[in-house]
């Protein structure tokens, strides 16, 4: 790989040195606070396996992240699954493309190529339309969780944990992708909450989430934040106090950044709520790890902080729904009242006895973040207490105004369209 | 065949249950596998895992990993290279359908066994692998495998030499294991009862 001269220079912040065993009161009186000393390289190489092995109670034992089918769901089965999806009147869902292992974020190329990232599959795919039939091609292999993709000025951008890569002229080189340029790599290499999503603004800057490598703890000062990376590799912090965010979009009405955030686990099935956040000012702090859902001090980590010190969510989305990719609807096919609504792909629960989420939500909200409310747009991928037939994780508006939905469980992309 | 019957037969074919893995097809495709993994999916070579009664989803993921080269192995790589998705699903279903192996014979060293039990509790193996270490979903059964195989698997996970299924879980969980932990866990898990 080649490297831009600027990639190494832009250290935002070094690893923080943290005192172990902080006991600053607040929360459970004698609870031993977990905290992590991030001053040693070993922290970054092997973060504590705490994000899925948390503070579970006996009743929560056995709740573990579910793993999807090893191979993409066959087309006939997908068609069968989609019969069970409920949509508002006039909407229709169909398979757009299948056989795309662990399909994650999607982005359009200028000439209509659909680029798709993946989770553990290490691949990036290109989906092209050949006379109404979709052809899926694996264009990149062997990347470290290339979950996020973006397209700008003829280049495909891919985020693979700790490397933001640029592939110039990608759309005309699908058969043999060029060597990437490393645009930015001041990111920790751990995998846990290290998978990312890319949101591009009008100027071409890319918003990247930096999740902490654990469920709850005092994060190193270089993570639990959103950074904005410019195409020349220069970066700045946009938001602080963010746990695991894997989705966001720019409000076409204001140019402001909105993002989804997954709240901490292991408190209970019904607490705390996942969030939709709205950045109105650079450097706002969204509460993690001190305060959740705008009004719930963490039982251990509030440490005397009050929730009103932090920026509250624009909307609480519900506990363990796992909101990931989101888009403002800017197409001209859906009914007029959908204009500038936010559609959110909810990946669904793992840390809950009865799964919820696994659906697409519709949020209406004013440009200033007021009057937010949500309703279910598409549901039916949860097929039992702890069973999925699919897990939506991203949404993309198509040129014709329909939307595409990526499903990494089934390895498929769906199209939802509307006709009167 | 008379037209009506033919139509009926066609109808039946098209109404075949969707994507149910075919155990019998898996058995036939498994003929190559049994050379090393044993006729009943129970191996005689302690360095090779038994597959009988293993979790279906786990087996399928491992075949996907071997096929793509993400789990590098000079024997399994070429063998899995040409598997179709359907064959791989059938193989997983077939081996999962077989009765599990008994624990290896011979009494374990009591001190090592106890140390392994404590390490398993400390590292919370049962959170995913269940209290009887029989596995769940894509988390494999880890009881009754030979100590040689279990120790190698843990070392490989610790070194990121083989991928976790789904998320980074096993690489992370093994990241904090000491060599002594691995030795003790491998002994304990042969016979956790």
Automatic annotation (TrEMBL), chain A:
The keyword Ribonucleoprotein does not apply. Pfam families: TrAA12 (PF22807). Residues 86-417 form the Pyrroloquinoline quinone-dependent pyranose dehydrogenase beta-propeller domain. Residues 1-31 form the signal peptide. Keywords: Signal. It comes from the Bacteria. This is Sorbosone dehydrogenase family protein. It comes from Dankookia rubra. The lineage of its organism: Bacteria, Pseudomonadati, Pseudomonadota, Alphaproteobacteria, Acetobacterales.
Automatic annotation (TrEMBL), chain B:
Keywords: Electron transport, Heme, Iron, Metal-binding, Periplasm, Signal, Transport. One of its GO terms (molecular function) is heme binding. GO terms for cellular component: periplasmic space. The keyword Iron applies. Residues 21-99, 111-193 form the Cytochrome c domain. SUPFAM superfamilies: Cytochrome c. Binds 2 heme c groups covalently per subunit. It is found in: Periplasm. Heme c 1 binds at residues 33, 36-37, 76. Gene3D superfamilies: Cytochrome c-like domain. Residues 1-20 form the signal peptide. The keyword Iron applies. Heme c 2 binds at residues 125, 128-129, 170. This is Cytochrome c4. It comes from Dankookia rubra. The lineage of its organism: Bacteria, Pseudomonadati, Pseudomonadota, Alphaproteobacteria, Acetobacterales.
């Amino acid at each position: 790989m080649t490297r831009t001269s600027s990639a190494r220079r832009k250290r935002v912040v070094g690893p923080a040195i943290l005192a172990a065993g902080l006991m600053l009161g607040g929360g459970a009186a004698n609870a031993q606070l977990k905290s992590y000393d991030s001053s040693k390289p070993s922290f970054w190489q092997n973060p504590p396996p705490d994000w899925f092995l948390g503070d579970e109670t006996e009743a929560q034992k056995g709740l573990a992240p579910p793993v999807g089918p090893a191979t993409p769901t066959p087309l006939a089965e997908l068609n069968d699954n989609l019969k069970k999806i409920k949509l508002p009147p006039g909407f229709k869902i169909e398979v757009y493309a299948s056989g795309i292992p662990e399909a994650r974020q999607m982005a359009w190329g200028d000439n209509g190529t659909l680029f798709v990232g993946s989770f553990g599959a290490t691949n990036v795919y290109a989906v092209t339309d050949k006379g109404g039939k979709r052809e899926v091609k694996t264009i990149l292999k062997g990347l470290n969780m290339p979950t996020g993709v973006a397209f700008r000025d003829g280049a495909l951008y891919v985020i693979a944990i700790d490397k933001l890569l640029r592939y110039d002229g990608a759309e005309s080189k699908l058969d043999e992708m060029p060597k990437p340029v490393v645009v930015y790599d001041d990111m920790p290499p751990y995998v846990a909450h290290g998978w990312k999503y890319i949101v591009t603004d009008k100027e071409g800057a890319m918003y990247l989430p930096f999740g902490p490598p654990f469920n709850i703890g005092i994060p190193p000062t270089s993570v639990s934040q959103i950074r904005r990376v410019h195409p020349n590799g220069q970066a700045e912090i946009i938001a602080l106090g963010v746990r695991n965010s894997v989705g966001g979009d720019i409000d076409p009405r204001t140019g402001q950044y909105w993002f989804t955030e997954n709240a901490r686990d292991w408190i209970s099935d019904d607490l705390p709520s996942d969030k939709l956040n709205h950045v109105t000012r650079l450097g706002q702090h969204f509460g993690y790890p001190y305060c959740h859902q705008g009004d719930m001090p963490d039982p251990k980590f509030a440490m005397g902080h009050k929730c009103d010190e932090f920026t509250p969510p624009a909307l609480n989305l519900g506990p363990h729904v796992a909101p990931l990719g989101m888009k403002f609807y800017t197409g001209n096919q859906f009914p007029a009242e959908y204009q500038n609504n936010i559609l959110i792909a909810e990946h669904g629960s793992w840390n809950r006895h009865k799964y919820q989420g696994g659906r697409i939500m519709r949020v209406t909200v004013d440009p200033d973040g007021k009057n937010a409310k949500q309703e279910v747009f598409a549901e039916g991928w949860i097929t039992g207490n702890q069973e999925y037939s699919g897990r939506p994780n991203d949404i993309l508006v198509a040129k014709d105004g329909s939307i595409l939905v990526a499903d990494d469980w089934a390895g498929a992309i769906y199209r939802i369209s509307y006709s009167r | 065949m008379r037209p009506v019957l033919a139509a009926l037969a066609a109808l039946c074919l098209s109404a075949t249950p969707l994507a149910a893995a075919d155990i019998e097809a898996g058995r036939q495709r498994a003929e190559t596998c049994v050379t090393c993994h044993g006729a009943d999916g129970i191996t005689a070579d302690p360095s090779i895992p038994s597959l009988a009664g293993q979790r279906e989803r786990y087996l399928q993921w491992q075949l996907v990993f071997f096929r793509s080269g993400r789990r590098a192995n000079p024997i399994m790589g070429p063998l899995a290279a040409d598997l179709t998705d359907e064959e791989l699903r059938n193989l997983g279903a077939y081996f999962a359908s077989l009765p599990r192996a008994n624990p290896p014979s011979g009494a374990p060293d009591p001190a090592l066994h106890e140390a392994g039990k404590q390490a398993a509790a400390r590292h919370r193996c049962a959170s995913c692998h269940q209290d009887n270490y029989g596995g769940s979903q894509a988390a494999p059964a880890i009881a009754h495998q030979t100590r040689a195989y279990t120790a190698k698997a843990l070392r490989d996970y610790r070194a990121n030499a083989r991928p976790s299924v789904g998320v980074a879980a096993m690489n992370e969980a093994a990241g904090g294991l000491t060599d002594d932990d691995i030795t003790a866990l491998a002994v304990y898990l042969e016979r956790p009862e």
